[in-house]
Amino acid sequence: MTENAPRLATGARRPWLIVNPRSGGGKASRFRIAERARTLGAQVYLIDHSLRQDLATVARRAVDDGADLLGVAGGDGTQALVAEVAAQCGLPFVVIPAGTRNHFAMDLGLDREDPSAALEALTDGVELRVDLGYAGERVFVNNVSFGAYAALVHDPAYRDDKLGTAARVLPEFLARHEGPELVVRTGLLTVHGPDAVLVSNNPYQLDDPVGLGRRAHLDSGLLGVLAARAETPADAARPRGGRPHGLTRLATPDDVVVHADVPVLPAGLDGEAVSLPAPVRCRISPRALRVWVPRPRSDAGRAGRPPGRPAKRWVG
Asked: Which candidate in 197, 198, 256, 311 could, as Cys together with 282 as Cys, close a disulfide (CB 3.0–4.6 Å)?
């Protein structure tokens, strides 16, 4: 067995699950996630949206009380908050895809149409080791975005149709986006003045110019970088080959530093609007997270790629 091959997961004695009842239009409620999790022996914490809650602190208190597995039924932003605690404590983590898009779950090979199926990881699962991305001190499981990419997060239509909205309005955002002047540096590469920047936890596939689709691996130890620049409104309105004009693509094990001419930089972190102190240093923490997934999975092998097949480093 290779170092990162899927391993049988031993049963957790005190699994603990955060459930967001509003995420994905109430998906957790429709699939009775809380009830089914309790039947499997998990302690469930239901998010009360009428209260201001720090979910990372809630998760740490659960660990202090003896939780030996953490999980989330919700969207990617909530997944990232609790995954950071699980990684810090060396505990396994379970992803229940109860959000709207569930990109992290998709690349783990989980069934996004039936989030309750992911609960099988508690009793019949395998453990994978996957990477985590960091933007400053904040963890991201998918990506962190700046400039026009970050501005997309604030578009109301984007919340309901992320892929369609991004493909439709990204050229317009690039053409009219006015924001901080950005400079991206990683290794020997410097990109001056990009209008949109996206740094991902493992690179997106080459045929995905917007950076919101699939990643071939979650354990390559590489950050993906997309930096797009629209030199004129006409350039932005006529993407070349379906891509924004002036697109730089990179996969790198090096830190990626995003500089700005402002002290605090608006960003999108796993689809959530945040503000980060500039410059923002992004890094990858290889195989930092122990993820339990059901056995068998609907898309087996996506995150559990044999590590003997190295991911390619590419620039385009």
From this structure: 256
Topology (CATH) of 139-284: Tumour Suppressor Smad4 (2.60.200)
Q: Is 239 helix (H, G, I), strand (E, B) or coil?
A: coil
Rounded mean pLDDT of the chain?
A: 83
Say how many C-beta atoms besides its own lie within 10 A of residue 98's C-beta: 31
Q: For residue 296, say if its preceding peptide bond is cis, omega within 30 degrees of 0.
A: yes
- Nearest C-alpha neighbor of 100 from the set 144, 45, 164: 164
- Domain extents in the chain: 7-131+287-294, 139-284
Peptide bond into 209 cis (omega under 30): no
> Using CA atoms, how far apart are residues 198 and 192, in angstroms rounded to an integer?
14
Q: Which residue has the tokens 């602190």?
A: 57
Strands (E), 113-214: 125-135, 138-140, 143-147, 182-186, 189-192, 196-201
Identity of the amino acid at 61: R
8 Å CB contact between 108 and 95? yes
State the Cα–Cα distance between residues 143 and 136, nearest whole angstrom: 13
> Cβ contacts of residue 255 below 8 Å, gap of 6+?
186, 281, 282, 283
Average pLDDT on 238-266 reads 81
Q: How confident is the model at residue 221 (pLDDT cuts 50, 70, 90)?
A: very high
pLDDT (mean) for 53-78: 95
The pLDDT of residue 155 is 62
Q: Model pTM? A: 0.84
* Alpha helix (H) residue ranges in the chain: 23-30, 33-39, 55-64, 76-89, 103-108, 148-153, 156-160, 162-176, 233-237
